Amino acid sequence: ELFGSVEPLVPSLREEGVVVWVLGEGPYPPGVVALQELLDGASEELEPEDVWEPEDLNDTSLYIFTSGTTGLPKAARVSHLKSLMCLGFYELVGASSRDVVYLALPLYHMAGSLLGILGCIGIAGPDAPGATCVLKEKFSASQFWEDCRREGVTVFQYIGELCRYLVNQPERPGERQHGLRLAVGSGLRPDVWRSFQRRFGAVRIVETYGMTEGNVTLFNYTG
């Protein structure tokens, strides 16, 4: 649905050597790769392992949007090793395969896709690996607690302002009747942290910080 914004730029992008990929029904102009046709025609069989296994874990796995810690917004390089490390995120903060994780963060950022989605996939369990992930297309403070009750949510991944939006909502009956036990994310200010726990109950909060373009991650395990 966003292709119309990109279409006028396609000729200049082709001159720069930039390839445009798009999902959805075509037709599309020359120089645009229609992914849906390729996906529909792809075999269900995996290629031999030596075809897709990276030669070096430090090679580029993917490029992901960053808002620009080291300058302007850009596509930041993420290695295979860094992607694999993200598989352990939720286990590091105390989640398990029994948890139901509520994720309303944009998937073009590392927090939503690599920590959120890959983190859920990476949780080991006694019967089957992985935790349940509830994807919300757009965060809604007014719907949040009802979503949690309906879906059986036990873990919430936030950025700091999401918790502020919840605290700023008018008080409602039953807002402490939920199964949420853990909130994990970045940017939660101390005043909002205290207000959140005072109002919504004994939810454990683990504040983390990591840069898409950096190699250091912090976890506030002690609260």
TrEMBL record:
InterPro entries, per this entry? AMP-binding_CS, AMP-dep_synth/lig_dom, ANL_N_sf
Q: Name the keywords, alphabetized.
A: Ligase, Lipid metabolism
Q: Name one GO cellular component term.
A: plasma membrane
Fetch the PROSITE patterns from UniProt.
AMP_BINDING
Q: Which GO terms describe its molecular function?
A: long-chain fatty acid-CoA ligase activity
Reaction catalysed by this enzyme: tetracosanoate + ATP + CoA = tetracosanoyl-CoA + AMP + diphosphate; a very long-chain fatty acid + ATP + CoA = a very long-chain fatty acyl-CoA + AMP + diphosphate
Outline the extent of the AMP-dependent synthetase/ligase domain. 49-217
Can the keyword DNA repair be found in this entry's annotation?
no
Q: Which family does it belong to?
A: Belongs to the ATP-dependent AMP-binding enzyme family.
Matches recorded under PANTHER family = LONG-CHAIN FATTY ACID TRANSPORT PROTEIN (PTHR43107), LONG-CHAIN FATTY ACID TRANSPORT PROTEIN 3 (PTHR43107:SF12)
Specify the protein name.
Long-chain-fatty-acid--CoA ligase
> What species was this sequence derived from?
Rhinopomastus cyanomelas (Common scimitarbill)
| Native organism taxonomy | Eukaryota, Metazoa, Chordata, Craniata, Vertebrata
Q: What is the gene called?
A: Slc27a3_0
